[in-house]
């Protein structure tokens, strides 16, 4: 199993429908007043969210991987906690959104969200602002949404590390972490996982830089009249795309990482197949802890280079063991499809986007109830069915 991080989106239209209909699309019994009462209870009447599902993922799944994600909830009301104007993939434009960062327990056959955090933009944190008018507005918003003083703006990758630490406190076993480039491009996030001895497979952009694995730091001659020079790489790092292109298409291999359900005469087994190549590289960056000899740590650079494409389409960095088979490395890199599957279930079937509350605690209670519901559904799906008596 692994852990994965994700994001999802909901439109303002989804929320308007949720005011009048339940998660199943039907009007709630008792009409609008009943729906309002439920929202009020979520805002004020439930115990704190994180404690309500303490250790839930470990009971439903035996973790193989951990995933990270971001879920964007497009809201029309700026008073809702954490709402700010941000780009929404669902809307295809900039709009009022909430962003929830989630951690999912993932296997090849099942997955479930096990932790959530609400991302607070800087406009919701008066300690990050200097303009008196903006500070006053942020404080007023925080008071209306009942945001606790300790809840401040933190980068999404820091929220992900916070949840990883929380899950470790619950006794969740250490498993590889999988996430998209929103996290993989943050060298500090990768270093945070390394400091925790957590392996990862993280998507990155081709513009990230690295040295070849055989690059060696060199110490310049000591001039005798200044501080002694420290070992440094004589050449600048290269972007990942250049390293892969230099290796060439022939360095790749065809890999089938899983079998889907869409069978065709040309693909009767529904195999998901592409060409991949894996190189050993030394990612560059100021936030990366160097070895005692000042060399940078070595890791895997995985690239997907589909047949017929002039260049690679996707890139990942991974600290999985040197001897890992290429197919296993690819399978883990591609496991994030489970996160998108989770978001579809959470939104379309379990009402993740249907929360209309106005408080910070209410939001966390709502997502806790939704992930409890998803965990129960996952457990029911993996429970062997008992034949009905004749």
UniProtKB/TrEMBL annotation:
List the Pfam families hit by this protein, alphabetically: DDE_5
Q: Organism's domain of life?
A: Bacteria
Domain (Transposase IS701-like DDE) ranges: 79-264
According to the UniProt entry, which residue ranges have a biased composition of type Basic residues? 65-74
Q: Where is the composition biased (Low complexity)?
A: 31-54
The UniProt regions of compositional bias labelled Basic and acidic residues, in chain numbering, are 13-27
Disordered as annotated region, ranges = 1-79
Q: Which PANTHER family match?
A: TRANSPOSASE
Protein name according to UniProt: Transposase, IS4 family
Q: Which organism is it from?
A: Frankia casuarinae (strain DSM 45818 / CECT 9043 / HFP020203 / CcI3)
């Amino acid at each position: 199993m692994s852990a994965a991080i994700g994001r999802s989106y909901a439109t303002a239209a989804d929320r308007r429908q949720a005011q009048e209909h339940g998660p199943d699309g039907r009007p709630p019994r008792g009409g609008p007043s009943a729906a309002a009462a439920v929202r009020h209870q979520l805002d004020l009447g439930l115990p704190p969210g994180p404690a309500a599902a303490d250790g839930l993922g470990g009971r439903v799944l035996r973790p193989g991987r951990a995933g990270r994600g971001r879920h964007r909830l497009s809201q029309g009301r700026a008073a809702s906690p954490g709402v700010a104007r941000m780009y929404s993939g669902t809307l295809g434009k900039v709009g009022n959104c909430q962003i929830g960062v989630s951690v999912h327990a993932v296997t090849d056959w099942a997955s479930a969200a096990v932790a959530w955090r609400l991302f607070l933009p800087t406009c919701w944190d008066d300690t990050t602002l200097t303009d008196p008018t903006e500070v006053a507005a942020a404080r007023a918003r925080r008071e209306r949404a009942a945001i606790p003083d300790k809840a401040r703006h933190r980068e999404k990758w820091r929220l992900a590390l916070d949840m990883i630490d929380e899950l470790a406190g619950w006794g969740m076993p250490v498993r590889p972490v999988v996430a998209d480039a929103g996290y993989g491009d943050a060298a500090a996030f990768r270093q945070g996982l390394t400091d925790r001895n957590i392996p990862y497979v993280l998507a990155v952009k081709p513009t990230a830089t690295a040295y070849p694995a055989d690059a060696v730091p060199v110490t310049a001659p000591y001039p005798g009249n200044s501080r002694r020079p420290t070992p440094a790489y004589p050449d600048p790092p290269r972007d990942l795309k250049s390293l892969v292109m230099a290796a060439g298409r022939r360095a790749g291999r065809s890999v089938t990482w899983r079998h889907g359900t869409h069978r065709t005469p040309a693909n009767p087994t529904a195999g998901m197949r592409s060409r991949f190549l894996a190189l050993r590289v030394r990612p560059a960056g100021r936030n990366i802890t160097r070895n005692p000899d000042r060399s940078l740590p070595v890791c895997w650079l995985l690239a997907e280079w589909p047949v017929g494409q002039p260049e690679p389409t996707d890139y990942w960095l991974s600290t999985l063991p040197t001897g890992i088979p290429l197919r296993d490395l690819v399978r883990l890199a591609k496991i994030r499809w489970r996160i998108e599957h989770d978001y579809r279930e959470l939104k379309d079937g379990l009402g993740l986007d249907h929360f209309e509350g106005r408080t910070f605690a209410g939001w966390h209670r709502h997502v806790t109830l939704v992930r409890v519901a998803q965990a129960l559904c996952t457990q029911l799906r993996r429970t062997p069915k008992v034949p009905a008596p004749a």
